[in-house]
Amino acid sequence: MSRLPRVGRPLRRLVLSPALALLLGLGLLAGCGADAATEGGCRFCHRGLEHVSASHPGCTECHGGDPQAWDKRRAHRGMFGGKNPAAPEAWEQTCGRCHPYQLARVRSNLMTTNTGMIRNIQLTWEGEDGRLYAARGEQAYGPQGEPQELAPVSELDNLSGELYRKFCSLCHVGQESNQVWSGSHGGGCAACHFPYNDNATYQGGDATVRGKWPYSADHRLQPLPGNDVCFRCHNRSGRIALSYQGLNDGNNSLVPTRGGQPGPRMIGGARNATSIAPDIHHEKGLECIDCHTSRDLMGDGYAYQNMYLQTEITCEDCHGSATEAPRSEPIQRENDEATRESRLYPRAMQQGEQMLLTAKGRKYSNVFVEGDKAWVQGKRSGRLHESKVITGTPEHTIVGHERLECYSCHSRSVAQCYGCHTRYDLGQMGMDFIKGRETPGRFSETEDYRMLYPFPLALNQRGRISPVTPGCQTFVTVADRRGETLKDEYVTSFKGRNQLRFAPFFGHNTGPRAIGCSQCHADPAFLGFGQHVVEGASIEGTLLCEKSEEKPLDGFLTMDYGRVRAFSAITRENSRPLNGAEVKRVLAVNQCLVCHDDPKDAIYQKKLDYRRLDACLERAGAAAP
User: Fold this and answer.
1) What tens digit of pLDDT does each residue of 131-166 get?
2) H/E stretch holding 611
3) CA-wise closest residue to 554 among 465, 410, 453, 445
4) How far apart (Å, rounded) are the C-alpha atoms in residues 390 and 393?
5) Which has more pLDDT, 156 or 548?
6) Residues near 528 by Cβ (< 8 Å), separated by ≥ 6?
7) Across-strand partners of 258?
């Protein structure tokens, strides 16, 4: 893609001493590629500053300011976004001038708007008012192209709005976060493309900034962010960045694990991450961006209300389903999105290559068909990974498993945090990160228990069976300005009932081997009964707390004399726990698994007839001496 030549501004008259001219010349020989004719002032002070990229040759195109001024105050006057020109306050004047297509996508992207997070908080904290909110407010378009107004969350004047602004809002790309060890990031485009290090200090070659906080680790653009960038945000809540890399921060209380120190890795919030088996894709060297498309991460221009609606990838895209092989289409145009995005990959995709399609029917830019095999190219590494296609294999065509998500069987673990106790104290001041000031009301939080395995299953928003994890399973305490308790360990109302909640979830910790058939069919914990004891035709939960004595924290079903009852909700549209008939069908398979424990067994290729079991037992009895 050719570029028009830049037209420099005329230089003011400036007389330099020989010594000053020599220093200036030396500064311009290294670091950022500023134009010596127009930006000598920038380079004189910021000698050694890293070159952003070959396509970003100057300073003021992005930063603004006066490049010909030799006084710091005058030189920095009129800069875009202060030290971060990629911040939302300035990105229309900076990144958006050259990248309007990308900016339009990012503006309505869930990681910018946080509409899904805010909406779920509203639903589970009794804050729903019929409006859709975003971190900053936005005029956007819904998935069907309909105009959509996203109100600024600063206008959400209830407890759910307070919780988001004071407790959750730093986890979106529109807001800089700079006080969390290993979890800080810049605002706007810089959140991903100019990553921070663990303590958010600059460690590059510019002596005027080196060691200062908060700054990106250096001044180089990262067009293809690595896993460390994703880790900055996705180490909380569902812990998907932790579990993908094989880390767990649960229930260890900073107990020393190496040399008398916590470890093997300290992460934000004074948490101690220890090792578990990583996701198989991580083991094989695949990074987050190798599976997730740019549309997953930056958006596609539409404003979605939940992450599962924006995410366009599924396991079946690369591995096929039980009955259908992966879909593919050739690149037909030289300006196809797959060719444009892959220009920065070690192997750029070319016109005519057969590319696999996402669940939304769009081409991947790094997954292709070659030699009758599906291949995934590492976008940063260039390594090729063969994608095993499972279509038609007997263990994947078991009758009765049609509704199972792949990761229901292949998840190694799912992060689960039970008994979240949140206190909101109006007698203390708390920082409202959206409004940028402290206001009355401070949140604090404790938890009861965290675990990884086993994990419960339920129907998700697609009508398929998937793992679920506690979603805002919160006991709320509210104290007024005098310290008097207004609400004490209150379970908020959801769908008209005071009930705990779970959310459909993909834990990002899959393995090549599936959970054993007898494990899933014989352990009621997988069906939503939690830790339990079985007494006759009843299943009683055992993970109880004084605030929920009759309803276990880690389950959402009870069985009393064969009658199955749901007492917790699944928080997505069309989602629900398994019903009594489904539970009984699952448990009934145990009669067959005693002898037929191989999922490839031919009896599982058709509907099970339990009357045949009676016939088998009768024959065995007749044959007995």
Assistant:
1) 999 999 999 999 999 999 999 999 999 999 999 999
2) helix 611-623
3) 453
4) 6
5) 156
6) 456, 457, 458, 468, 555, 556, 557, 566, 577, 578
7) 261
Q: Comparing C-alpha atoms, which of 94, 125, 101 is closest to residue 190?
A: 94
Beta-carbon count within 10 A of 417 CB = 19
- pLDDT digits 0-9 by tens, 381-394: 999 999 999 999 99
Token digits of residue 96: 């958006």
Q: What is the pTM of this model?
A: 0.90
Give, as one character, the DSSP assignment of residue 505. Answer: -
8 A C-beta contact, residue 113 and residue 135: yes
Q: Count Cβ atoms below 10 Å from residue 534 Cβ, excluding itself.
A: 11
Q: Could you tell me which residues come within 8 angstroms of residue 199 by beta carbon, excluding any fewer than 6 positions away?
A: 181, 184, 213
501 vs 503: CA distance, rounded Å = 7
Closest to 398 in 3D by CA, of 596, 622, 141: 596
**Tokens linked to 56:** 């970003």
Specify which residues 423 forms β-bridges with: 444, 477
Q: Nearest to residue 424, comparing CAs of 437, 440, 438?
A: 440
Task: Give the torsion sign (CA, 145, 151, 153, 157).
Answer: negative
Query: How many beta carbons lie within 10 A of that of residue 593, not counting itself?
Result: 17
Cα–Cα separations (whole angstroms), residue 455 to 103, 508, 527, 554: 39, 13, 9, 9
Q: Tell the residue number behind the tokens 């198989």, with chain if given.
A: 280
Nearest residue to 192 via CA among 86, 94, 85: 86
599: tokens are 């999922």
What are 560's strand-pairing partners?
563
Query: Using alpha carbons only, how large is the chain's radius of gyration in Å?
Result: 28
Amino acid letter at 420? C
CB of 330 closer than 8 Å to CB of 336: no
Q: In degrees, to the nearest 5, what angle opens at C-alpha 110 toward C-alphas 109 and 113?
A: 85
Query: Which tokens in the block code for residue 601?
Result: 């067994």
Residue that has been written with the tokens 């663990």 in this structure = 198
Q: What is the DSSP string of 58-88?
A: -SHHHHBS-TT--SHHHHHTTBSSTT-TTST
